[in-house]
Design brief:
Blueprint lengths: L2 H17 L2 E6 L5 H13 L3 E5 L1 H10 L15 E6 L4 H12 L5 E7 L2 E4 L4 H6 L3 H39 L1
Antiparallel strand pairs: 1-3, 1-4, 2-3, 4-5
Helix pairs in contact: 1-3
C-alpha cells in the first residue's frame, strides 16, 4: 500500500473517531460470513459503526487524534474490529445479545468510554451496565418528580378523608 493511500485511510479513521465518543476494540476472527453479516446488521440497527481496520493504521489514527487513546495501544494486536458509538453501553449490550445467539464471539479487547479505558473481556458486564446520558437524565427527572408526586398524593388522599369525615358528621 502506498504512503498516500495509508494517509487517506488514517485520516478517514480519524474522522470517524471524531464523530463518536465511545470506541470499542473487539475481535471477530472466527465468525463465518453469515454471522459477520448478522453482526453488521445488528450494528447498523443499533446505530453503531463497525469497521475492520489494520492495527498500525488504527494506532496512527489514535496518535493523530486530540483524545488520549494510549491505554488502548497494547490491545492492538491480532485481528481488530472497531465499534464506534455515541451511547456508552450500546456496543456492550449488542455484544452480549449477539453472544446469546452465537458462541463467544465477538470478544471484547477493550473500550474507551467517557474518557475511561476498559481493558479485557471481564469488563463487558461493567460496560453493559453503564447508564447512557439519556438514562441518567431520566433518572434525575424521576427523582425530582417523586417528592412532588408524594405531596400531591398525600394532599389528595387527606382531602378525601376529610371530606368523608365531614360527610359522616353531617349525616349524624
Amino acid at each position: 500500500m502506498k504512503k498516500e493511500d495509508k494517509a487517506i485511510i488514517i485520516a478517514n479513521i480519524g474522522d470517524q473517531l471524531k464523530n463518536y465518543s465511545c470506541v470499542y476494540l473487539t475481535q471477530t476472527a472466527g465468525l463465518n460470513a453469515e454471522k459477520t453479516s448478522a453482526l453488521r446488521r445488528a450494528c447498523f440497527t443499533g446505530d453503531i459503526k463497525m469497521l475492520c481496520v489494520k492495527n498500525t493504521l488504527l494506532k496512527a489514527a489514535f496518535e493523530a487524534s486530540d483524545v488520549d487513546y494510549s491505554g488502548l495501544y497494547d490491545l492492538l494486536h491480532g485481528e481488530t474490529t472497531l465499534m464506534l458509538s455515541n451511547t456508552g453501553n450500546a456496543p456492550a449490550k449488542l455484544i452480549k445479545k449477539f453472544r446469546d445467539k452465537t458462541d463467544t464471539l465477538p470478544m471484547l479487547k477493550g473500550a474507551f468510554v467517557e474518557e475511561t479505558v476498559y481493558v479485557g473481556e471481564e469488563q463487558l458486564e461493567t460496560l453493559a451496565n453503564i447508564k447512557s446520558k439519556n438514562e441518567l437524565i431520566g433518572d434525575v427527572i424521576g427523582l425530582l418528580q417523586s417528592p412532588a408526586k408524594n405531596v400531591i398524593s398525600a394532599l389528595q388522599s387527606g382531602g378525601n378523608k376529610l371530606h368523608g369525615i365531614l360527610e359522616t358528621l353531617s349525616n349524624k
